[in-house]
Hints:
alpha/beta; binds pyridoxal-5'-phosphate
Amino acid sequence: xxxxxxxxxxxxxxxxxxxxxxxxxxxxxxxxxxxxxxxxxxxxxxxxxxxxxxxxxxxxxxxxxxxxxxxxxxxxxxxxxxxxxxxxxxxxxxxxxxxxxxxxxxxxxxxxxxxxxxxxxxxxxxxxxxxxxxxxxxxxxxxxxxxxxxxxxxxxxxxxxxxxxxxxxxxxxxxxxxxxxxxxxxxxxxxxxxxxxxxxxxxxxxxxxxxxxxxxxxxxxxxxxxxxxxxxxxxxxxxxxxxxxxxxxxxxxxxxxxxxxxxxxxxxxxxxxxxxxxxxxxxxxxxxxxxxxxxxxxxxxxxxxxxxxxxxxxxxxxxxxxxxxxxxxxxxxxxxxxxxxxxxxxxxxxxxxxxxxxxxxxxxxxxxxxxxxxxxxxxxxxxx
Length: 384
Ligand SMILES: Cc1ncc(COP(=O)(O)O)c(C=O)c1O
């Protein structure tokens, strides 16, 4: 193994999967609230479009690197409808094989060994690993409850900002389910301008929000397009995690750097899937009410149930995650193990998202309401 592999732990969910399988083999009925993978099907019109597109032999050849112009135009139109942001589909949109792919590759374009990347902790694990793969050094920005799980940019030491090349942010946030308002994004833009840092805003959950709340795009804020890009995904918006389709939008120079990495690594995104993605963006207004209503109901069931048991959790305004305090006397890992061994419930220990996640665990609301109710009943019986 190369040294770069040695320095990273096995992918968080791969480890949890192993343990889960062990329990399953022992005959345990597992309620998996671990990974955030929607259980609802992709809407019919998207599937129908794929069927037709898959028959078209034009789509069997290598796709273009930057993505079909029809798909990128659909992205630009969606951005304008949804956020009031105008994008040039030729230069300000890039298709991705899922947003994870773009996030994982972007440091390769901009980070030299010795450069720093500002990474939220807790945070989506790919920011940190992608930084390490590029030879960069992650500097962790703690996300704490008392700050609404927003990083405090003014606390970053000058010696760090001087060497920092990229800043990852992610709202609505995984794993804390926190949201960001315009004032925070404005602060980020000013910070990035001052220190010449590229902002990568991960908006994978922009279309999973409740109670009428509609998350902002980072690109809505003045100056944002001059300092960074935004990653989006069709995965959670349209229940398409398995399809692998996402995109990045914003600063054309940053996108072209990412595009140069990609042309040397992948050969684009199967055109039939891009056609289906085009259908998704053109056909639907997002967020999709059926999806939101389902998660909203699940959220209410679970927040109520956990509250009754005495577990401390906020009612999230967005994402399908609950970020829950571990009861006194346990570490995150100990408590997650207790839940799995005594309740057959898979939850993700907070420290898997970074040191600052210690003291929490995450539950994903990606199983049926009936099963969530069952999870609450099982939790009630566990002594902690
Ligand atoms: C915060 C965040 N960003 C990005 C992704 C990647 O999504 P995809 O690669 O399916 O577009 C995920 C997936 O769980 C996520 O939680």
